[in-house]
Amino acid sequence: MIRKIISGNEAVALGVKLARVGVTGIYPITPQTTIIEKLAEMRAKGEIETEILRVESEHSAMAATFGAALGGVRAFTATASQGLLYMHEMVWWVAGSRVPVVMVVGTRAVGAPWNIWNEHTDFTSERDSGWIMAFASNPQEALDLTLQAFRISEDERVFLPMMVGMDGFILSHTKTNVLIPDQDQVDDFLPPRRQPYVIDPEDPIGMGNIFPPEGYMRLRESIDSALRNSEDVIKEIGREYNKKINPLGDYSTLNVSYKLEDADYAVVLMGAWAGDAMEAVDTLREKGIKIGMLRIRYLRPWSEKEIRSALKDKKAVLALDRSTSFGRGGGPLYVEIKSTISDVVPQIKGVVSGLGGVTVNKSDLVYIFNKFVEGLKDDVIWYYPKEVGKIELRTPRDIE
Amino acid sequence: MSLLEYQYFPVTRPNKGAGGKTGAWRIVKPVVDYNKCIGCKACFMFCPESTIIPSNGKVRVDYEYCKGCGVCANVCPVKAISMVSEQ
Ligand code: SF4
Ligand code: SF4
Description:
Structural class of chain B: alpha+beta
Number of strands of chain B: 5
Structural class of chain A: alpha/beta
Strand order of the largest sheet of chain B: 2-5
Strand content of chain B: 15-25%
Largest interface: A-B, 24 and 17 residues
Shape of chain A: globular
Bound molecules: iron/sulfur cluster
Helix content of chain B: 10-25%
Low-confidence stretches of chain A: none
Radius of gyration of chain B: 16 Å
Oligomer: heterodimer
Low-confidence stretches of chain B: none
Shape of chain B: globular
Mean pLDDT of chain B: 92
Largest sheet of chain A: 7 strands, mixed
Largest sheet of chain B: 2 strands, antiparallel
Strand order of the largest sheet of chain A: 3-2-4-5-7-6-13
Number of helices of chain A: 13
Strand content of chain A: 15-25%
């Protein structure tokens, strides 16, 4: 095991190498591009044997990865933003086919208008597609979750694809200290690929052929059961990962609590800003405010049990979304949290911020958390950090 | 692999002539030239009616179900299949 200063994207590429991925379908899109560049570089140097399929779009990238996986090979792809949206159809085909595949999403805003910066809406908008969905909060976790994703996805109790989200630029391009496991450690943790069926000319099968209504519905129910049952699988594999690979990371739970036990107030969020949020929690704690944080690491399966027990005795809960759910006021986390704990927590508020790369730092979070503890009038607010200031938007009348 | 009871997969087995036996309406049929056939099984994989059957390293056509669509002739990399008039 060695330590190296690398970016989130490099960490993911190393994870793909260590997982002995057989085929990667690749297409570049910011901020994910350097993952596939790194893979191509390693392939050119002969460090990996992964077959790299260069395709003409993200739709094809997922189709190629899917095809390889159906052939029985461990397969990987990565994407972001418009690319994930373009892939959307194939994302459903993979889940509906119950085939293990791993994808990393370097999250980014979706157009229009064009914006290449970080936001979680591309990721969260896939939450009903039947994939297992984890979200990293630092490059180390991006690597760890990528490695675990292959195990989870290929477990016979699961057999579903898994995506790992990672904040575009904030994690994908920022270099930090990452613990990189040795190949034999990973080989010990990750056995050869297993899947329920393989496309084989000697014993031909058809995949996703036309299904009668009842058969189709039964298949839908099986996806739901597999996704719900994956909760125990994730914890079990997480514990094994702690033991065999990274004793410093704690993967025995789906979500991560920070100073929650004795807290009166709790904030819920997902992704990289958890680091700033922990510092903001500390600042409020110094002033005697009992506040804690719950970081959602798995958007799917949504661990109702874990989340309810973590938040049940709180006076108020604030869901912080870096994504939108238009027409609903708050973001997806706000909606999910509300539906999970509204009978046990009297006050649930939502804040939408950080969209399209808007920087939300520790002092902004201190400000938001203070306002929340004092009591927010509105259920959901859209928060613009002070430095964003007033933006002049032009209307058609101005242009005339 | 022992699978749990809730696991259910969208898998089907190819079945020859899903539309039933071919009547007298077929106008051309595929004929395999065994001197050219290299046994690659491309025709078998692409036949939409599953009426190509791998046999002895080469392939055989089940004419009772073959619809005469010509897909096999088109995918054969060595042009071993020709579509011959039924007359
Ligand atoms: S002509 Fe069509 S149906 Fe007949 S064997 Fe060839 S591909 Fe199959
Ligand atoms: S595609 Fe042509 S060469 Fe290949 S098995 Fe069929 S007839 Fe033979």
